[in-house]
Amino acid sequence: MKEISTSEFEKEITLGKKVVLDFYSSECPPCEAVAPKFEGLSKIYGDDITFLKIFRQKNKELAEKLGVKSSPTLLFFDNGKEVADRLSGGIKRSDIISHLDSMIPEEKVIAIKSHIKPSVSDFDVIILGAGPGGLTAGLYLCQAKVNAVMVDIALPGGHVSTTHEVSNYPGFIEPQAGYMLSHNMSEQTKQCGTVYKVAVDVTKVDLEKKEVTIDEFETLRAKRIIIATGTSPNFTGAPGEKELKGKGISYCATCDAKYFVDKEVVVIGGGNSAVEESDFIARFASKITMVHQFDKLTANKQAQEKLLANPKISVMYEHEPRSFAKEGDQLVTEIEDLKTKERKKLVSDGVFVFTGFKANIGLFAGNLELDQWGYIKTNEDMRTNIDGVYAVGDVISKKYRQITTAVADGTIAAIAISKELD
What we know:
There is one protein chain. The protein has helices at about 5-15, 30-45, 60-65, 95-105, 105-115, 130-145, 180-190, 240-245, 255, 270-280, 300-310, 405-420; strands spanning about 1-5, 20-25, 50-55, 75-80, 80, 85-90, 120, 125-130, 150, 195-200, 200-205, 210-215, 220, 225, 230-235, 250, 265-270, 285-290, 315, 320-325, 330-335, 345-350, 350-355, 355-360, 390. The protein is α/β, with parallel strands linked by helices. It folds into three domains: about 1-115, 3-Layer(aba) Sandwich (Glutaredoxin), CATH 3.40.30.10; about 120-230 and about 360-420, FAD/NAD(P)-binding domain (3-Layer(bba) Sandwich); about 240-355, FAD/NAD(P)-binding domain, CATH 3.50.50. Strands 1, 2, 3, 4, 5 and 6 form a six-stranded mixed sheet that branches. Strand 18 (about 285-290), helix 11 (about 300-310) and strand 19 (about 315) form a beta-alpha-beta unit. The chain is globular, with a radius of gyration of 24 Å. About 40% of the residues are buried.
Protein backbone atom coordinates (compact mmCIF):
# COMPACT_ATOMS: atom_id res chain seq x y z
CA MET A 1 0.00 0.00 0.00
CA LYS A 2 1.36 3.42 -0.96
CA GLU A 3 0.50 7.01 -0.05
CA ILE A 4 0.45 9.40 -3.02
CA SER A 5 -0.16 13.09 -3.75
CA THR A 6 -1.79 14.92 -6.63
CA SER A 7 1.45 15.09 -8.61
CA GLU A 8 1.70 11.28 -8.61
CA PHE A 9 -1.95 10.57 -9.36
CA GLU A 10 -1.84 10.53 -13.16
CA LYS A 11 1.27 8.37 -13.28
CA GLU A 12 -0.04 5.83 -10.78
CA ILE A 13 -3.38 5.19 -12.45
CA THR A 14 -2.22 5.29 -16.07
CA LEU A 15 0.42 2.59 -15.89
CA GLY A 16 -2.00 -0.02 -17.15
CA LYS A 17 -2.54 -1.27 -13.64
CA LYS A 18 -5.62 -2.11 -11.65
CA VAL A 19 -5.84 0.41 -8.82
CA VAL A 20 -8.01 1.12 -5.79
CA LEU A 21 -7.57 4.60 -4.32
CA ASP A 22 -8.71 5.70 -0.86
CA PHE A 23 -9.43 9.42 -0.37
CA TYR A 24 -9.23 9.82 3.41
CA SER A 25 -9.31 12.71 5.89
CA SER A 26 -8.04 13.31 9.42
CA GLU A 27 -10.45 13.34 12.38
CA CYS A 28 -12.77 11.15 10.33
CA PRO A 29 -14.32 8.15 12.17
CA PRO A 30 -15.46 6.42 8.93
CA CYS A 31 -11.89 6.76 7.59
CA GLU A 32 -10.52 5.19 10.75
CA ALA A 33 -13.04 2.35 10.42
CA VAL A 34 -12.11 1.53 6.81
CA ALA A 35 -8.33 1.89 7.24
CA PRO A 36 -7.61 -1.55 8.77
CA LYS A 37 -9.88 -3.24 6.21
CA PHE A 38 -8.11 -1.46 3.37
CA GLU A 39 -4.68 -2.37 4.70
CA GLY A 40 -5.66 -5.97 5.37
CA LEU A 41 -7.08 -6.44 1.88
CA SER A 42 -3.95 -4.90 0.34
CA LYS A 43 -2.00 -7.84 1.74
CA ILE A 44 -4.46 -10.29 0.16
CA TYR A 45 -5.06 -8.65 -3.24
CA GLY A 46 -1.82 -6.63 -3.47
CA ASP A 47 -0.20 -8.83 -6.12
CA ASP A 48 -3.04 -8.15 -8.57
CA ILE A 49 -4.36 -4.73 -7.56
CA THR A 50 -2.40 -1.66 -6.44
CA PHE A 51 -3.68 -0.09 -3.22
CA LEU A 52 -3.18 3.69 -2.93
CA LYS A 53 -4.13 6.27 -0.31
CA ILE A 54 -4.37 10.03 -0.73
CA PHE A 55 -4.95 12.67 1.97
CA ARG A 56 -8.03 14.55 0.79
CA GLN A 57 -7.43 17.71 2.84
CA LYS A 58 -4.01 18.28 1.24
CA ASN A 59 -5.22 17.36 -2.25
CA LYS A 60 -8.48 19.31 -2.44
CA GLU A 61 -8.20 20.34 -6.07
CA LEU A 62 -7.83 16.73 -7.23
CA ALA A 63 -10.72 15.65 -5.01
CA GLU A 64 -12.93 18.39 -6.48
CA LYS A 65 -11.85 17.53 -10.02
CA LEU A 66 -12.82 13.88 -9.46
CA GLY A 67 -16.06 14.81 -7.72
CA VAL A 68 -15.04 13.33 -4.38
CA LYS A 69 -17.27 15.03 -1.83
CA SER A 70 -16.94 12.87 1.28
CA SER A 71 -14.37 10.88 3.23
CA PRO A 72 -13.56 8.11 2.93
CA THR A 73 -14.24 7.50 -0.76
CA LEU A 74 -12.80 4.52 -2.61
CA LEU A 75 -12.27 4.80 -6.39
CA PHE A 76 -11.45 1.82 -8.59
CA PHE A 77 -9.39 2.14 -11.80
CA ASP A 78 -8.41 -0.25 -14.56
CA ASN A 79 -5.92 0.92 -17.19
CA GLY A 80 -6.49 4.55 -16.23
CA LYS A 81 -10.28 4.41 -16.40
CA GLU A 82 -12.58 4.40 -13.40
CA VAL A 83 -14.56 1.17 -13.04
CA ALA A 84 -17.22 -0.02 -10.57
CA ASP A 85 -19.29 2.21 -8.31
CA ARG A 86 -17.56 4.35 -5.75
CA LEU A 87 -17.78 3.41 -2.08
CA SER A 88 -18.03 6.05 0.63
CA GLY A 89 -19.05 6.57 4.26
CA GLY A 90 -19.37 3.48 6.43
CA ILE A 91 -17.72 1.05 4.00
CA LYS A 92 -18.00 -2.66 4.71
CA ARG A 93 -15.20 -5.09 4.00
CA SER A 94 -17.56 -7.29 1.98
CA ASP A 95 -18.39 -4.40 -0.36
CA ILE A 96 -14.70 -3.71 -1.00
CA ILE A 97 -14.10 -7.39 -1.70
CA SER A 98 -17.02 -7.50 -4.14
CA HIS A 99 -15.52 -4.59 -6.09
CA LEU A 100 -12.02 -6.07 -6.07
CA ASP A 101 -13.31 -9.46 -7.24
CA SER A 102 -15.02 -7.81 -10.20
CA MET A 103 -11.66 -6.42 -11.39
CA ILE A 104 -9.76 -9.69 -11.72
CA PRO A 105 -10.40 -13.07 -13.42
CA GLU A 106 -12.60 -15.58 -11.60
CA GLU A 107 -9.83 -18.18 -11.35
CA LYS A 108 -7.61 -15.61 -9.64
CA VAL A 109 -10.40 -14.78 -7.17
CA ILE A 110 -10.75 -18.46 -6.30
CA ALA A 111 -6.99 -18.77 -5.80
CA ILE A 112 -6.85 -15.69 -3.56
CA LYS A 113 -9.72 -16.82 -1.36
CA SER A 114 -8.26 -20.28 -0.97
CA HIS A 115 -5.35 -18.69 0.87
CA ILE A 116 -7.46 -16.58 3.25
CA LYS A 117 -7.10 -18.07 6.72
CA PRO A 118 -9.82 -17.51 9.32
CA SER A 119 -8.62 -15.65 12.40
CA VAL A 120 -9.66 -15.83 16.05
CA SER A 121 -9.37 -13.02 18.60
CA ASP A 122 -10.05 -13.30 22.34
CA PHE A 123 -11.58 -10.59 24.53
CA ASP A 124 -13.18 -10.35 27.94
CA VAL A 125 -16.36 -8.76 26.56
CA ILE A 126 -17.97 -8.39 23.14
CA ILE A 127 -20.35 -5.43 22.82
CA LEU A 128 -22.78 -5.85 19.94
CA GLY A 129 -23.92 -2.36 18.97
CA ALA A 130 -22.25 1.05 19.24
CA GLY A 131 -25.13 3.30 20.24
CA PRO A 132 -25.16 5.24 23.54
CA GLY A 133 -25.73 2.08 25.62
CA GLY A 134 -22.93 0.12 23.97
CA LEU A 135 -20.53 3.07 23.97
CA THR A 136 -21.11 3.72 27.67
CA ALA A 137 -20.58 0.04 28.48
CA GLY A 138 -17.33 0.14 26.53
CA LEU A 139 -16.20 3.25 28.39
CA TYR A 140 -16.84 1.80 31.84
CA LEU A 141 -15.28 -1.55 30.92
CA CYS A 142 -12.06 -0.08 29.54
CA GLN A 143 -11.73 2.20 32.56
CA ALA A 144 -12.02 -0.95 34.70
CA LYS A 145 -9.18 -2.50 32.62
CA VAL A 146 -11.56 -5.02 31.01
CA ASN A 147 -10.56 -5.97 27.45
CA ALA A 148 -13.64 -5.17 25.35
CA VAL A 149 -14.42 -5.04 21.63
CA MET A 150 -17.18 -2.96 20.05
CA VAL A 151 -18.95 -4.52 17.04
CA ASP A 152 -21.46 -2.72 14.82
CA ILE A 153 -22.75 -3.16 11.28
CA ALA A 154 -22.74 0.63 10.94
CA LEU A 155 -20.63 3.44 12.38
CA PRO A 156 -20.78 4.37 16.09
CA GLY A 157 -23.64 6.51 17.38
CA GLY A 158 -26.84 4.62 16.67
CA HIS A 159 -29.95 6.75 16.09
CA VAL A 160 -28.36 9.67 17.92
CA SER A 161 -25.94 10.22 15.03
CA THR A 162 -28.88 10.97 12.69
CA THR A 163 -30.84 13.09 15.19
CA HIS A 164 -30.60 16.73 14.22
CA GLU A 165 -30.63 18.14 17.75
CA VAL A 166 -30.54 16.81 21.33
CA SER A 167 -31.76 19.32 23.91
CA ASN A 168 -32.24 17.14 27.00
CA TYR A 169 -28.87 15.45 27.53
CA PRO A 170 -27.53 16.48 30.97
CA GLY A 171 -24.47 18.70 31.08
CA PHE A 172 -25.16 20.73 27.94
CA ILE A 173 -26.90 24.08 28.31
CA GLU A 174 -27.35 24.53 24.56
CA PRO A 175 -28.90 21.83 22.32
CA GLN A 176 -26.30 19.54 20.78
CA ALA A 177 -26.16 18.24 17.22
CA GLY A 178 -26.84 14.51 17.43
CA TYR A 179 -23.88 13.55 15.27
CA MET A 180 -21.54 15.58 17.49
CA LEU A 181 -22.85 14.10 20.73
CA SER A 182 -22.44 10.56 19.41
CA HIS A 183 -18.99 11.43 17.99
CA ASN A 184 -17.80 12.67 21.39
CA MET A 185 -19.16 9.53 23.10
CA SER A 186 -17.39 7.34 20.56
CA GLU A 187 -14.06 9.18 20.79
CA GLN A 188 -14.10 9.01 24.58
CA THR A 189 -14.64 5.24 24.53
CA LYS A 190 -12.08 4.70 21.77
CA GLN A 191 -9.36 6.73 23.52
CA CYS A 192 -9.97 4.77 26.68
CA GLY A 193 -8.89 1.60 24.87
CA THR A 194 -11.96 -0.25 23.65
CA VAL A 195 -11.25 -2.04 20.36
CA TYR A 196 -13.56 -1.07 17.47
CA LYS A 197 -14.87 -3.39 14.74
CA VAL A 198 -17.43 -1.19 12.99
CA ALA A 199 -19.07 -1.10 9.55
CA VAL A 200 -18.71 -4.87 9.45
CA ASP A 201 -20.96 -7.74 8.42
CA VAL A 202 -21.98 -9.84 11.41
CA THR A 203 -22.01 -13.33 9.92
CA LYS A 204 -22.86 -15.39 12.99
CA VAL A 205 -23.57 -14.99 16.70
CA ASP A 206 -23.41 -17.86 19.20
CA LEU A 207 -24.56 -16.54 22.55
CA GLU A 208 -23.99 -19.82 24.36
CA LYS A 209 -20.36 -20.10 23.21
CA LYS A 210 -19.86 -16.31 23.40
CA GLU A 211 -18.60 -16.18 19.82
CA VAL A 212 -19.27 -13.64 17.06
CA THR A 213 -18.06 -14.05 13.48
CA ILE A 214 -17.61 -10.89 11.41
CA ASP A 215 -16.93 -10.48 7.71
CA GLU A 216 -17.11 -14.29 7.33
CA PHE A 217 -13.51 -14.88 8.40
CA GLU A 218 -12.80 -13.30 11.81
CA THR A 219 -14.18 -14.93 14.95
CA LEU A 220 -14.30 -12.96 18.20
CA ARG A 221 -14.49 -14.94 21.45
CA ALA A 222 -15.25 -13.60 24.90
CA LYS A 223 -16.30 -14.40 28.44
CA ARG A 224 -19.33 -12.11 28.31
CA ILE A 225 -21.51 -10.52 25.61
CA ILE A 226 -23.50 -7.29 25.82
CA ILE A 227 -26.32 -6.94 23.28
CA ALA A 228 -26.84 -3.26 22.41
CA THR A 229 -28.25 -3.63 18.90
CA GLY A 230 -31.00 -1.05 19.31
CA THR A 231 -34.06 -0.73 17.10
CA SER A 232 -35.06 -0.15 13.48
CA PRO A 233 -37.95 1.96 12.13
CA ASN A 234 -41.32 0.30 11.65
CA PHE A 235 -42.88 0.30 8.21
CA THR A 236 -46.52 1.20 7.69
CA GLY A 237 -47.00 -1.93 5.59
CA ALA A 238 -49.03 -0.02 3.01
CA PRO A 239 -48.63 -1.06 -0.66
CA GLY A 240 -45.92 0.87 -2.47
CA GLU A 241 -43.90 1.74 0.64
CA LYS A 242 -41.23 -0.89 0.14
CA GLU A 243 -40.81 -0.04 -3.54
CA LEU A 244 -40.52 3.70 -2.87
CA LYS A 245 -38.17 3.50 0.11
CA GLY A 246 -35.29 5.82 -0.74
CA LYS A 247 -37.18 6.99 -3.83
CA GLY A 248 -39.38 9.56 -2.17
CA ILE A 249 -40.15 7.82 1.12
CA SER A 250 -37.64 8.47 3.90
CA TYR A 251 -37.20 7.44 7.55
CA CYS A 252 -34.51 9.99 8.45
CA ALA A 253 -35.20 13.73 8.54
CA THR A 254 -31.58 14.61 9.27
CA CYS A 255 -30.50 12.67 6.21
CA ASP A 256 -33.09 13.85 3.71
CA ALA A 257 -34.96 16.99 4.82
CA LYS A 258 -32.42 19.20 3.03
CA TYR A 259 -33.65 17.84 -0.30
CA PHE A 260 -37.12 19.32 0.22
CA VAL A 261 -36.40 23.04 0.25
CA ASP A 262 -39.63 24.94 -0.57
CA LYS A 263 -41.43 21.66 -1.23
CA GLU A 264 -44.43 19.92 0.29
CA VAL A 265 -44.10 16.74 2.33
CA VAL A 266 -46.29 14.28 4.20
CA VAL A 267 -45.28 12.92 7.61
CA ILE A 268 -46.77 9.69 8.92
CA GLY A 269 -46.95 9.48 12.72
CA GLY A 270 -47.65 11.59 15.80
CA GLY A 271 -45.25 10.49 18.54
CA ASN A 272 -42.07 12.18 19.74
CA SER A 273 -40.05 11.25 16.66
CA ALA A 274 -42.72 12.41 14.21
CA VAL A 275 -43.30 15.70 16.00
CA GLU A 276 -39.64 16.57 16.61
CA GLU A 277 -38.54 15.57 13.11
CA SER A 278 -41.44 17.50 11.54
CA ASP A 279 -40.22 20.61 13.31
CA PHE A 280 -36.79 20.02 11.74
CA ILE A 281 -38.24 19.33 8.28
CA ALA A 282 -40.12 22.64 8.53
CA ARG A 283 -36.76 24.43 8.30
CA PHE A 284 -36.68 23.36 4.67
CA ALA A 285 -40.15 22.40 3.41
CA SER A 286 -42.85 24.94 2.60
CA LYS A 287 -45.72 22.76 3.84
CA ILE A 288 -46.02 19.66 6.02
CA THR A 289 -49.13 17.52 6.39
CA MET A 290 -48.99 15.07 9.29
CA VAL A 291 -51.14 11.94 9.19
CA HIS A 292 -51.82 10.48 12.66
CA GLN A 293 -54.01 7.52 13.60
CA PHE A 294 -55.17 8.89 16.97
CA ASP A 295 -57.35 11.89 17.88
CA LYS A 296 -54.40 13.71 19.44
CA LEU A 297 -50.62 13.72 19.22
CA THR A 298 -48.71 11.45 21.62
CA ALA A 299 -45.46 13.44 21.80
CA ASN A 300 -44.41 15.40 24.88
CA LYS A 301 -46.40 18.58 25.51
CA GLN A 302 -43.56 21.04 24.86
CA ALA A 303 -42.84 19.50 21.45
CA GLN A 304 -46.56 19.49 20.59
CA GLU A 305 -46.97 23.16 21.45
CA LYS A 306 -44.01 24.12 19.28
CA LEU A 307 -45.29 22.06 16.35
CA LEU A 308 -48.90 23.27 16.52
CA ALA A 309 -47.68 26.88 16.57
CA ASN A 310 -45.82 26.37 13.28
CA PRO A 311 -47.93 27.72 10.38
CA LYS A 312 -46.23 25.34 7.93
CA ILE A 313 -47.59 22.25 9.70
CA SER A 314 -51.11 20.83 9.78
CA VAL A 315 -52.31 17.55 11.31
CA MET A 316 -54.90 15.12 9.98
CA TYR A 317 -56.05 13.19 13.04
CA GLU A 318 -57.60 9.71 12.95
CA HIS A 319 -56.24 8.92 9.50
CA GLU A 320 -53.95 6.14 8.28
CA PRO A 321 -52.04 5.60 5.02
CA ARG A 322 -53.41 2.90 2.73
CA SER A 323 -51.03 3.11 -0.24
CA PHE A 324 -48.14 5.02 -1.77
CA ALA A 325 -47.61 5.63 -5.48
CA LYS A 326 -45.39 7.72 -7.72
CA GLU A 327 -46.88 9.99 -10.36
CA GLY A 328 -44.16 11.78 -12.28
CA ASP A 329 -41.93 13.54 -9.75
CA GLN A 330 -44.58 13.50 -7.03
CA LEU A 331 -45.78 10.99 -4.47
CA VAL A 332 -49.45 10.20 -3.94
CA THR A 333 -50.36 9.01 -0.45
CA GLU A 334 -53.82 7.49 -0.19
CA ILE A 335 -55.18 7.87 3.35
CA GLU A 336 -58.30 6.62 5.08
CA ASP A 337 -60.46 8.50 7.57
CA LEU A 338 -60.79 5.99 10.42
CA LYS A 339 -64.18 7.42 11.42
CA THR A 340 -65.96 7.70 8.08
CA LYS A 341 -63.84 5.16 6.12
CA GLU A 342 -63.59 7.78 3.38
CA ARG A 343 -60.39 7.67 1.34
CA LYS A 344 -58.57 10.67 -0.10
CA LYS A 345 -55.26 11.36 -1.81
CA LEU A 346 -52.45 13.64 -0.66
CA VAL A 347 -50.06 14.79 -3.37
CA SER A 348 -46.59 15.79 -2.16
CA ASP A 349 -42.93 15.91 -3.10
CA GLY A 350 -41.96 13.34 -0.48
CA VAL A 351 -43.05 11.29 2.52
CA PHE A 352 -41.38 10.77 5.90
CA VAL A 353 -42.44 7.80 8.03
CA PHE A 354 -42.04 7.94 11.83
CA THR A 355 -44.25 5.17 13.23
CA GLY A 356 -42.12 3.73 15.99
CA PHE A 357 -39.43 1.09 16.12
CA LYS A 358 -38.82 -2.65 16.52
CA ALA A 359 -36.01 -4.42 18.36
CA ASN A 360 -33.04 -5.61 16.29
CA ILE A 361 -32.96 -9.21 17.48
CA GLY A 362 -32.81 -11.12 14.19
CA LEU A 363 -29.44 -12.66 15.01
CA PHE A 364 -30.68 -13.98 18.36
CA ALA A 365 -34.20 -15.23 17.60
CA GLY A 366 -35.20 -18.33 19.54
CA ASN A 367 -32.48 -18.03 22.20
CA LEU A 368 -33.49 -15.07 24.30
CA GLU A 369 -36.51 -14.52 26.50
CA LEU A 370 -38.56 -11.70 25.00
CA ASP A 371 -41.56 -9.66 26.08
CA GLN A 372 -44.82 -9.57 24.11
CA TRP A 373 -43.50 -6.78 21.86
CA GLY A 374 -40.28 -8.58 20.93
CA TYR A 375 -37.88 -6.76 23.26
CA ILE A 376 -35.26 -8.62 25.36
CA LYS A 377 -36.10 -9.22 29.00
CA THR A 378 -33.36 -8.39 31.53
CA ASN A 379 -33.03 -8.19 35.31
CA GLU A 380 -31.83 -5.17 37.28
CA ASP A 381 -28.20 -5.91 36.36
CA MET A 382 -29.10 -6.11 32.64
CA ARG A 383 -28.64 -9.90 32.60
CA THR A 384 -30.70 -11.92 30.11
CA ASN A 385 -31.88 -15.50 30.60
CA ILE A 386 -28.64 -16.77 28.98
CA ASP A 387 -25.68 -17.03 31.33
CA GLY A 388 -23.04 -14.41 30.62
CA VAL A 389 -25.22 -12.46 28.16
CA TYR A 390 -26.41 -8.94 28.97
CA ALA A 391 -28.59 -6.50 27.02
CA VAL A 392 -28.82 -2.69 27.20
CA GLY A 393 -30.48 0.27 25.52
CA ASP A 394 -33.48 0.37 23.23
CA VAL A 395 -33.34 -3.37 22.47
CA ILE A 396 -34.51 -4.32 25.99
CA SER A 397 -37.97 -4.41 27.54
CA LYS A 398 -38.41 -1.06 29.30
CA LYS A 399 -40.90 1.76 29.76
CA TYR A 400 -38.82 4.64 28.39
CA ARG A 401 -36.31 4.63 25.54
CA GLN A 402 -34.09 7.68 25.76
CA ILE A 403 -30.36 8.39 25.36
CA THR A 404 -30.08 8.81 29.12
CA THR A 405 -31.76 5.48 29.89
CA ALA A 406 -29.51 3.68 27.39
CA VAL A 407 -26.44 5.25 28.98
CA ALA A 408 -27.69 4.10 32.41
CA ASP A 409 -28.20 0.54 31.12
CA GLY A 410 -24.67 0.44 29.71
CA THR A 411 -23.25 1.68 33.01
CA ILE A 412 -25.09 -0.98 35.03
CA ALA A 413 -24.10 -3.87 32.73
CA ALA A 414 -20.44 -2.80 32.64
CA ILE A 415 -20.16 -2.48 36.42
CA ALA A 416 -21.87 -5.84 36.94
CA ILE A 417 -19.52 -7.54 34.46
CA SER A 418 -16.43 -5.81 35.89
CA LYS A 419 -17.26 -7.17 39.35
CA GLU A 420 -17.87 -10.65 37.97
CA LEU A 421 -14.58 -10.74 36.10
CA ASP A 422 -12.56 -9.16 38.91
